[in-house]
Amino acid sequence: MDLEHNQSTDYYYDENEVNGTQDYSQYEILCVKEEVRNFAKVFLPTFYTVAFIVGIAGNSTVVAIYAYYKKQKTKTDMYIMNLAVADLLLLITLPFWAVNAVHGWVLGVPMCKLTSALFTINFVSGMQFLACISIDRYSAITKVPGHQRAGRPCWIICVGVWITAIVLSIPQLVFNTVNDKKRCLPIFPHHLGITMKASIQILEICLGFVLPFLIMGVCYSVIARTLIKMPNMKKSRALQVLLAVVAVFLITQLPYNIVKFWQAIDIIFSLITDCETSKRMDVAIQITKSLALCHSCLNPILYAFMGSSFKMHITKMVKKYGYWRRQRQNPEDIPFDSDGLTEPTSTFSI
């Protein structure tokens, strides 16, 4: 992942690259992008700082609730907890990329590989867990209610999602390195450069956006039609939740994947042939990727905090924390037990 430079403009390069590899950043010999880097030095650290603080707070709360307070978990609960873990692991890479935007990559090649792979793993897995949540909600509302608690099939699905994301991160582990300009970016063998770069881009788009969006679109459209036919007066709130989930997904993910797809097409056909267009593409990828990261901050609100069950557990946690504070001030208080059993209700209430 290189947030300072866009790899779509690979038409400038040195044919005599040493060691049989092609460093696609060499096009800057002909296209100086100082203003793009200056924009990144201001925009990326500011945005990443806000996203890091907000996202860590929200997703940490979700993980804490599910790990320590909600004993009986449904399948949706398991997917939301895995989603929160993926978002947390994604967010902890942001300080590294913020420093990279200002000073270049100063942590060495191993950290370059690990951080890039970690970003890809958790970005892709997060999108796939969103699809899993939509499938589970579809099953819950369109079929006869049955056993909704998390079991072995749920764990198998979660493991499968993580394995798929890890496989997609292998190119970062293998090919990412730090070049002489202190940039962490993939450098492919010359004979694999164009084909592999384009293939990785398209595969990430398909598994990280197209597939989850199709699954969410089909599941939530069926759920919406089912809710509309129900005489329940509370269905309007459920429809609003569905609309918010789909709208946020499209607003945050669609622009980034459009730009990313254009990058892949440019890698193959070299459509961008002037410096100004290349600079605009650089800025576009920085802005749209940052917008896509907003989803990690919004997931706790969309999938956890809206649920009545989750709100109940937050209330218990706050009461327990408040009691702990009072106990430290007055040890003679009678203990308050907040660990009673709760019903395994679905967090994402629709």
Automatic annotation (TrEMBL):
Q: Its membrane topology, per UniProt? A: Multi-pass membrane protein
Residues crossing the lipid bilayer are 47-69, 81-102, 114-133, 154-178, 198-224, 236-256
The gene coding this protein: ACKR4
Q: Which residues form the G-protein coupled receptors family 1 profile domain?
A: 58-303
| Gene3D superfamilies documented for this protein | Rhodopsin 7-helix transmembrane proteins
One GO BP: calcium-mediated signaling
Q: Which CDD domains match?
A: 7tmA_ACKR4_CCR11
Q: What protein name is recorded for this chain?
A: Atypical chemokine receptor 4
Q: Which InterPro entries does this entry report, sorted A to Z?
A: ACKR4, CCR1-9-like, Chemokine_rcpt, GPCR_Rhodpsn, GPCR_Rhodpsn_7TM
Give the originating organism.
Answer: Sarcophilus harrisii (Tasmanian devil)
Localization, per the record, is: Cell membrane
Provide this UniProt record's keywords sorted from A to Z: Cell membrane, G-protein coupled receptor, Glycoprotein, Membrane, Receptor, Transducer, Transmembrane, Transmembrane helix
Q: Kindly indicate whether the keyword Transcription belongs to this entry.
A: no
